[in-house]
Amino acid sequence: MKDIINIIFPKQFDNQFRGYKIALYAFYVLTAITVWRSQHHLFAADGGAQTIASIPLDTFTAAGSQAVIGVFGLWGLSQLIIGVIYLLVAFRYRAMVPLMYVLLIVEYAFRAIYFPISKSIPTTGTAPGAIINLPFILFSVVMLILIVVGDKKKKSVK
Questions:
Q1: Mean pLDDT across the chain, nearest whole number?
Q2: How many domains does the chain have?
Q3: Residues 6+ away with beta carbon under 8 Å from 107
Q4: Are 56 and 123 in contact (CB under 8 A)?
Q5: pTM of the prediction?
Q6: Three-state DSSP string of the chain
Q7: How many CA atoms lie within 13 A of 13 on its CB side?
Q8: Is 128 a domain residue?
Q9: Which domain holds residue 31?
């Protein structure tokens, strides 16, 4: 268990990636997806609320609709900030990739479990984000396992 903690929280965040390379390459893809998603929430007229998330903005009051669009814009900004952090990790601080996978798992677990139960949003269809939450969690867990196993394997070879 101590080894896993040291892999997720190394004493030094350097540019040394210590797991299987597939987990690093997958992190590059997740980074690109995060940055791409952010731009739509930031720049789309409806923030993606109705056009992507199927939130029936036309049934809301003008103020209610604007509030939802504003929140989606803020969400896009937070996704962009996370995306920039992912870019820094991907190209300068690769030792942080395991921690980023842990944070990704936490984020998507809240999206998949907590929010649908406690803060559900009315929609006219299923948003792509709702469909992808569980696969992202499972995928991130597998990538994290590959990092831990790959790190231990590299240590045993040396």
A1: 89
A2: 1
A3: none
A4: yes
A5: 0.86
A6: CHHHHHHHCCCCCCCCCCCCHHHHHHHHHHHHHHHHHHHHHHHCCCCCCCCCCCCCHHHCCHHHHHHHHHHHHHHHHHHHHHHHHHHHHHHCCHHHHHHHHHHHHHHHHHHHHHHHHHCCCCCCCCCHHHHHHHHHHHHHHHHHHHHHHHHHHHHHHC
A7: 14
A8: yes
A9: 20-149
